[in-house]
Design goal:
Elements lengths: L1 H17 L4 H15 L3 H30 L4 H24 L2 H4 L4 H30 L7 H32 L8
Helix pairs in contact: 1-4, 2-4, 3-4, 6-7
């Protein structure tokens, strides 16, 4: 019951945060989230910043360039965007630490089945990525240069995408054979 309540509160918070446009309120909510997270705040904040950095920098820079060329103000939008994304990501990471998603969706057998499948896929890919990293590290005498690390990361990403596609096909066929999808329409 606690998990279902946490998931419901998080869903309401996500929808509510999307309706808040004042950076002062978004900043206040972010500070409140930091206070509620307590000792976990630094670790959660670091993970949130790492998770959103690349996309937010690209989107913010693109908007700044576009708005500057058009002679429009951009500061408020960029601040609002970054605060909102950081707040939502921080709350989501906090929730992931405190929520058993399988228990939270136990009211629906189908949804619970999908969540278990997704969590199984996540564990498989985490293990595979760890294996790739350990293999790369064991084959390197010293710290590889950036170019070598980027090539390795590219090969890892390609292998993960290929495995994801194959597993998705197999899971889809397995679910279809068990009547999970109703294709009679």
């Amino acid at each position: 019951m606690k998990d279902r309540l946490l998931l419901s509160v998080w869903l309401v918070a996500v929808v509510g945060i999307t309706f808040i446009h004042d950076p002062v309120w978004l900043g206040g909510l972010l500070l409140l989230a930091f206070a509620l997270a307590g000792k976990a705040t630094p670790a959660l904040l670091k993970r949130a910043l790492i998770a959103i950095a690349l996309v937010n920098i690209a989107v913010s820079a693109g908007f700044v360039i576009s708005a500057s060329l058009a002679g429009e103000p951009w500061g408020l939008f960029v601040m609002r965007l970054n605060l909102r994304v950081l707040l939502l990501t921080f709350l989501t990471l906090w929730l992931a630490r405190h929520l058993d998603l399988v228990r939270a969706v136990d009211f629906s057998r189908s949804l619970q089945f999908v969540v278990v499948l997704a969590l199984g896929q996540i564990k498989t890919f985490q293990r595979m990525l760890t294996d790739y990293r350990m293999a790369f590290r064991s084959r390197s005498l010293g710290r590889p240069d950036l170019k070598t690390r980027m090539r390795s990361a590219g090969r890892q990403a390609g292998a993960l995408l290929e495995k994801a596609e194959l597993q998705a096909t197999e899971v889809n066929l397995g679910m279809r054979s068990r009547g999970f999808f109703d294709d009679r329409a």
